[in-house]
């Protein structure tokens, strides 16, 4: 048995017998630590209020003496009212209860009573929500801020509070702190026992706040330590390729591009090349808004990888994207002598065999492909760099498979995403990765003009589409989203397709939705790319990375149903050519959040700004692309309001792990023990 009281089982706490312990176990509470970590979600305030300064309508608690016999009033069959006069300090007030007839015999003149309820300043009256006789009460609420817990049905707040209180009293002095004293002092943190006491039974709000502050730091620190240790283990267990980077040749290539790289592109390239030179395997996330120029960065990295003697792979989620990337990479790199091949599910058997052989022999330098890349029979001669685009579209396991296709050394891996993630989230969700951010668009990009219109103005939208198409441009029309029902989505798309085909007999209207085979989808997209389709009616399947520069109009039905990040992604399908582009949001949002989303879209084109505002509106859990990547559900910490603490915890964890301090100085022993108990050192597989 451990000597750490927190690890002890709760049986033995006054009020918890064997039977009760089983019920606690159902709530995930076994040890004292589990119990103390069961935090209240709010507090009830039973501190005595001075009525002479209380505002009308305030919830107040007062102490007084009953002055009259109770008066009972029948309001209806079911409702009755009972009232007495009570002397509170120098005031005589009326206390009234609804439907509390059982109090009638207890409300005796002269009894001391605690009243909590709503204060009516004009009538000097309290409508009582809770009351307590003070003459026979041992465990009075009087004067306290009392915790309110989220509890299963058969638990009572009072009972749970008492148990929590007993447990705290019983072991307060034996609660051992796992943080070293100097850290506690440095940040002026509460020690652990006062943090537990203060979060459950705060003396006042300040006390509760300081208790929470300590526990939030703990929560974030432990999480960040886990990530940093995980990252360190990966680097040790998966030795990467320490290679020479031919900067001279790379500079010549960069100089030869038709445009100058932006500062941000140069910076992220440096970060990537730095990792590639090191003897650990790169594990880096490259994020940049739609159109920020990630592809050319990927191309330079692939070129550097080629120059150092290795093959590269670029994995994308759809065939259309694969073909698009193949084209861009060939334009950039084929003139330098690189062999670039495509590997998708569409290849004929003999073509596929051919590509596979060339990959295995090292004839192909770069392969661009879909899931087809991670089939078992795909072998590389010497894979050195793996890039995945729109990384959230691939599961963790799929990304890991490609990484394992290297030889004895682990290939470097770069994940690219056009879904900007605010820094607090990035270092939480992807904390074991390094993050590079392109936070600047190439010069001269035109802002996509965005309009929010009510659905009844649809005829004007049709006129607008008409004009643009007569100018030779193309339009997307994104259909309403029916939650949970792919079938209805498709039906919507079919209906709107029919409606637009009717309205525009002289235009070609195409239709794209998830029920089409990938071959059919490709055909439609190719026709749209070649301007053989003027208007493309689609469900959200067009969302990712598709590049049709001639499309200048994006109409989104029921825009309020989409998340901000998704709206931004959809909007990013236009504005890719030299012509002014437009995004029209058809929406009649009822909720404030819905309206705010529309405003944000109209106000800004900046993906990072949108992500920040999205985070504020919705909280981190829902953020597109983050869901699967596992932002944990913190018990206390809140990624928006506690971001400073997060930054501190992050840099502390990084420092202590990288320097090895955590293992060198015995003052960390208790923390290490705790991490061990949390399973941080158990063997884990790469990627996460
Ligand atoms: P994304 O980040 O969305 O993948 P792309 O790589 O497709 O963006 O780039 C969008 C377009 O911008 C491409 O046509 C690309 O050639 C061009 N581009 C990239 N970098 C620059 C730059 N520094 N200056 C001007 N144009 C650029
Ligand atoms: Mg490396």
TrEMBL record:
Tell me the Pfam families matching this sequence: DEAD (PF00270), Helicase_C (PF00271), RecG_dom3_C (PF19833), RecG_wedge (PF17191)
Query: Which enzyme type, at the first EC level?
Result: isomerase
**Which EC number applies?**
5.6.2.4
Domain Helicase C-terminal stretches: 494-578
CDD domains recorded:
DEXHc_RecG (cd17992), RecG_wedge_OBF (cd04488), SF2_C_RecG (cd18811)
Query: Which GO BP terms sit in this record?
Result: DNA recombination; DNA repair
Q: Which domain of life is it from?
A: Bacteria
Q: What family is reported?
A: Belongs to the helicase family. RecG subfamily.
Chain's role = Plays a critical role in recombination and DNA repair. Helps process Holliday junction intermediates to mature products by catalyzing branch migration. Has replication fork regression activity, unwinds stalled or blocked replication forks to make a HJ that can be resolved. Has a DNA unwinding activity characteristic of a DNA helicase with 3'-5' polarity.
- Name-wise, this protein is ATP-dependent DNA helicase RecG
């Amino acid at each position: 048995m451990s000597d750490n009281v927190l690890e002890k089982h709760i049986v033995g706490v006054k009020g918890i017998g064997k039977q009760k312990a089983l019920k606690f176990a159902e709530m995930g509470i076994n040890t004292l630590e589990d119990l103390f970590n069961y935090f209240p979600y709010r507090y009830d305030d039973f501190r005595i209020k001075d009525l002479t300064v209380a505002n009308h309508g305030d919830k107040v608690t007062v102490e007084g003496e009953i002055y009259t016999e109770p008066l009972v009033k029948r309001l209806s069959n079911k409702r009755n009212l009972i009232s007495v006069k009570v002397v509170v300090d120098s005031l005589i007030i009326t206390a009234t209860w609804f439907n509390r007839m059982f109090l009638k015999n207890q409300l005796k003149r002269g009894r001391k009573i605690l009243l909590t309820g709503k204060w009516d300043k004009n009538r000097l009256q309290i409508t009582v929500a809770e009351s307590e006789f003070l003459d026979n009460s041992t465990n009075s609420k009087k004067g306290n801020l009392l915790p309110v817990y989220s509890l299963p049905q058969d638990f009572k707040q009072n009972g749970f509070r008492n148990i929590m209180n007993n447990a705290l009293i019983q072991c307060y002095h034996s609660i051992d702190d796992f943080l070293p004293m100097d850290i506690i002092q440095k940040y002026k943190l509460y020690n652990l026992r006062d943090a537990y006491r203060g979060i459950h039974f705060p003396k006042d709000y300040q006390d509760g706040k300081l208790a929470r502050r300590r526990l939030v730091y703990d929560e974030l620190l432990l999480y960040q330590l886990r990530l940093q240790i995980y990252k360190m283990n990966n680097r040790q267990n998966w030795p990467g390729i320490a290679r020479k980077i031919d900067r001279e040749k790379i500079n010549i290539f960069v100089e030869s591009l038709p445009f100058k790289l932006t500062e941000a592109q140069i910076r992220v390239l440096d970060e990537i090349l730095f990792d590639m030179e090191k003897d650990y395997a790169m594990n880096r996330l490259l994020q940049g808004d739609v159109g920020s120029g990630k592809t050319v960065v990927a191309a330079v990295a692939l070129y550097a990888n080629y120059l150092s003697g290795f093959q590269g792979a670029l994995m994308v989620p759809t065939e259309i994207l694969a073909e698009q990337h193949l084209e861009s990479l060939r334009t950039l790199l084929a003139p330098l002598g690189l062999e670039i091949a495509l590997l998708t599910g569409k290849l004929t058997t003999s073509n596929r065999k051919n590509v596979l052989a060339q990959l295995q022999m090292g004839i192909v330098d770069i392969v661009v492909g879909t899931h087809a890349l991670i089939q078992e029979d795909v072998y590389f001669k010497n894979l050195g760099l793996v890039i995945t685009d729109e990384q959230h579209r691939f599961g963790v396991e799929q990304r890991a498979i490609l990484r394992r296709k290297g030889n004895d050394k682990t290939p470097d891996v770069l994940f690219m995403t056009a879904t900007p993630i605010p820094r607090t989230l990035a270092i939480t969700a992807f904390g074991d990765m390094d993050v590079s951010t392109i936070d600047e668009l190439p010069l001269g990009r035109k802002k996509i003009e965005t309009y929010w219109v009510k659905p009844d103005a649809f005829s004007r939208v049709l006129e607008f589409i008409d004009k643009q198409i007569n100018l030779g441009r193309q339009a997307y029309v994104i259909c309403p989203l029916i939650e949970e029902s792919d079938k209805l989505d498709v039906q919507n798309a079919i209906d709107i397709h029919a409606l637009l085909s009717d309205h525009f007999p002289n235009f070609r209207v195409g239709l794209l939705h998830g029920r089409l085979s990938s071959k059919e989808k490709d055909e439609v997209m190719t026709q749209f790319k070649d301007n053989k389709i003027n208007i493309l009616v689609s469900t959200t399947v067009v969302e990712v990375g598709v590049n049709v520069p001639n499309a200048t109009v994006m109409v989104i039905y029921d825009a309020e149903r989409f998340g901000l990040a998704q709206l931004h992604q959809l909007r990013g399908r236009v504005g890719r050519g030299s012509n002014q582009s437009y995004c029209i949001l058809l929406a009649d949002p009822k909720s404030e959040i819905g309206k705010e989303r529309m405003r944000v879209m109209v106000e800004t084109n900046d993906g990072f700004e949108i992500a920040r505002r999205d985070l504020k509106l919705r909280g981190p859990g829902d953020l597109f692309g983050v869901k699967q990547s596992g932002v944990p559900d913190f018990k206390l910490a809140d990624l928006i309001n506690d971001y400073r603490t997060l930054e501190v915890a992050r840099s502390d964890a990084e420092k202590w792990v990288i320097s090895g301090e955590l293992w060198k100085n015995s003052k960390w022993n208790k923390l290490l023990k705790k991490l061990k108990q949390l399973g941080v050192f158990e063997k884990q597989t790469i990627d996460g």
